From TrEMBL:
Pfam families reported for this sequence: HTH_18 (PF12833)
Domain HTH araC/xylS-type per the UniProt entry, residue ranges: 160-257
GO molecular function: DNA-binding transcription factor activity; sequence-specific DNA binding
Keywords: DNA-binding, Repressor, Transcription, Transcription regulation
Organism: Mesorhizobium hawassense
Protein name in the entry: AraC family transcriptional regulator
Listed PROSITE patterns: HTH_ARAC_FAMILY_2 (PS01124)
InterPro entries to which the protein is assigned, alphabetical: Homeodomain-like_sf, HTH_AraC, RmlC_Cupin_sf
Length: 268
């Protein structure tokens, strides 16, 4: 099924479909699109064949680079923001139909699973071929490795304020002391709060945000030079060094390898 990127779908409710697995394909227009916060009784896989998608859930931001997917468990509130010209597939899974994590996570998508998703999106929910493809998909989906491509976000209001400000302006290079002053905390108190709520130091937390933004923009077609400047790095070399240290490969090779290998080389 093909749909515009908006919620709710105009002609059907995915939770009213009894099939164990259904897939919906979406082609985003030339401008980015956003689906507001909502939830389903079914679990959902958000899969990007082209372009990028960022999923927001109460506990974090999850980046969906090309040929990867984000698993959103049943009844978890979430929103999706897609880059311009993205090609996306949503796979909806009945609770209990597959042994999937009870938390949000980024999954590598194998070439086989990718083709199953694409083919299933062209089938009606009650189609015999769709039923067969759905069974194979549900057998493959739990085998997909998990990647660590998310930004933990706390419900703590001061951290959420900082996260939203950095997401709006990722080039902001304010120091920990400057952020602490803005949220009326001491520098040491803010450092402890970030570590307690996210498990990361402030510097590592901000770097993770930069990785998410960088992957989203690179997937949308931005150059390494452009992304480096947008994130406030003094040089392209400094940005590439950060990216390679965090993800093991420079940006161009990381994305090209994902495209060529269906994401399977990057399990964490």
């Amino acid at each position: 099924m093909r749909q515009p990127l908006r919620w709710p779908w105009l002609n059907f409710d995915v939770d009213d479909v009894s099939a164990p697995a259904i897939a919906v394909g979406v082609d985003v227009t030339e401008t980015k699109a956003e689906v507001p916060m909502h939830w389903h009784r079914k679990g959902q896989l958000v899969f990007a064949l082209g372009g990028g998608v960022t999923c927001r859930v109460p506990s974090g931001l999850w980046m969906v680079p090309p040929h990867c997917g984000v698993w959103v468990p049943s009844r978890m509130e979430h929103s999706n923001i897609a880059t311009a010209n993205a090609r996306i597939f949503f796979v909806y899974v009945e609770p209990g139909a597959a042994q999937m994590p009870d938390r949000c996570c980024t999954l590598s998508i194998s070439p086989l699973l990718r083709e199953l998703i694409i083919e299933l999106a062209d089938c009606a929910p009650d189609d015999a071929r769709g039923e067969f493809l759905g069974k194979v998909l549900l057998a493959e989906l739990p085998l997909m490795p998990v990647q660590q491509l998310h930004l933990p976000i706390s419900a703590e209001p001061r951290l959420r304020l900082i996260a939203e400000a950095l997401a709006e302006d990722p080039a902001d290079r304010s120091t920990l002391a400057e952020w602490a002053n803005r949220v009326a905390l001491s520098e040491s108190s803010l450092a402890r709060l970030v570590m307690k709520e996210t498990g990361l130091s402030f510097g590592r937390w901000r770097q993770q945000l930069h990785l998410i933004v960088a992957l989203r923009e690179l997937a949308a077609g931005a150059s390494v030079q452009q992304v480096s400047g947008d994130l406030g790095y003094e040089s392209v070399t400094a940005f590439i060094t950060m990216f390679k240290k965090a993800l093991g490969k420079p940006p161009g090779k990381y994305l090209s390898d994902i495209a060529q290998q269906g994401g399977s080389a990057f399990a964490a």
